[in-house]
Specification:
35% of the residues lie in helices and 10% in strands. By secondary structure, it is of the alpha+beta class. A hairpin with a 2-residue loop joins strand 3 and strand 4 (186-194). The structure holds heme C.
Length: 320
């Protein structure tokens, strides 16, 4: 009886989870064209892309998002984007040292007179945090807290594909329109987006326009963000666009980052690279893990064959 009750509750829970998902109705994240190189049993990170992704994080995201679980030395560890076999200890790697020194941090330990000085980071230091604490981060971001990105690809369904889809999913700037209306004798200024013109919605795009979505102040519409657009949609609420609003404005515009390897910095390329960098940060031992997994499978396979033959041999004289 007890088992039955537990089962019934779990099933009901699952059903509600399904409803919540449906109401959230964000678009399903998708991988960049060609998929991710790190997927599958033998997939590995494209380290050149992870290197560029670090540049995107450093030059764009790190002004708002911390990565508190990462140290600069991680960049130069085996499997990391700046690993150099000449320096098995990344603390000695001059390139990693230079990357670290490019960040001014507050020293985690006080000096002789008890003050916390600013100094260039060393490979042993954690990534520089943009804000002293969460309150300061919220104050600078209209009350919203930019989440730490250390393990964001593990924390959100869809992982790297979610980060990629979110960053590339915003409407283009040209799509925002100013709308002036009268309400209770007062003039109201709003920013709206005509969903009928928003091609990125694909099959979810309204067939007949204009179908305006009102963007709340300091919030930005994104079809991949979990949320609800119905209260802000001026069209048929049954066909409200997927997604929701978040406090992060679109961050990537072409050539926002200068790539040293000459790769053209399109929005898709930067989103692809930073998502792959974040996937690496969240799972830096992926290569070693897959290699061990594969070796274990081969070992178990050989063991199975050996066991089969010894079983045949041991029981060969027994009738059955
Ligand atoms: C100007 C500050 C700022 C910059 C720069 C910025 N973000 Fe954000 N980001 C935010 C804020 C604020 C939020 C929280 C939004 C909310 O919860 O409404 C956020 C949220 C996110 C989220 C979580 C969305 C969710 O599902 O909750 C991800 C992922 C993200 N940012 C990735 C990035 C990446 C990658 C970059 C660099 C390309 C970047 N951000 C640059 C401010 C910023």
């Amino acid at each position: 009886m007890k088992t039955f009750r537990i089962l019934a509750i779990s099933l009901a829970g699952l059903a509600f989870a399904g409803i919540a998902q449906a109401a959230g109705g964000a678009k399903h994240p998708h991988a960049p064209e060609g998929g991710w190189p790190f997927e599958g049993a033998t997939g590995e990170y494209d380290l050149a892309s992870v290197q560029r992704g670090y540049a995107v994080y450093k030059q764009v995201c790190s002004s708002c998002h911390s990565m508190k679980l990462m140290s600069y030395r991680n960049l130069g560890e085996k499997g990391g984007p700046f690993y150099d076999p000449a320096y098995p200890n990344p603390n000695d790697n001059p390139f990693v040292k230079a990357l670290a020194a490019d960040n001014e941090i507050v020293s985690p330990t006080p000096n002789d007179i008890g003050e916390f000085e600013m100094r260039p980071a060393s490979p042993a230091d954690r990534f520089r945090s943009p804000f002293a604490n969460d309150a300061a981060a919220r104050a600078a971001n209209g009350g919203a807290l930019p989440p730490d990105l250390s393990v964001i690809t593990k924390a959100r369904p869809g992982g790297a594909s979610y980060v990629y889809s979110l960053l590339t999913g915003y409407p283009d700037f040209e799509m925002y329109e100013d709308r002036v209306t009268e309400a209770n004798g007062e003039t109201v200024y709003q920013t709206v987006i005509d969903m009928a013109k928003f091609d990125k919605l694909g099959a979810d795009k309204p067939q007949h326009g204009p179908a305006y979505l009102i963007q709340p102040a300091a919030q930005y519409y994104n079809p991949y963000m979990a949320g609800d657009t119905k209260p802000n949609y001026l069209g048929d609420p049954r066909h409200a666009p997927p997604g929701g609003f978040l406090a992060m404005a679109p961050q990537l515009v072409p050539d926002r980052v200068e790539y040293t390897d000459g790769t053209p910095a399109t929005v898709e390329q930067m989103a692809h690279d930073v998502a792959q960098f974040l996937a690496w940060a969240g799972d830096p031992k992926l290569k070693a893990r897959k290699e061990t997994g594969l070796a274990t499978m081969v070992y178990l396979g050989i063991l199975t064959i050996l066991l089969w033959f010894s079983y045949k041999r041991i029981w060969r004289k027994v009738e059955h």
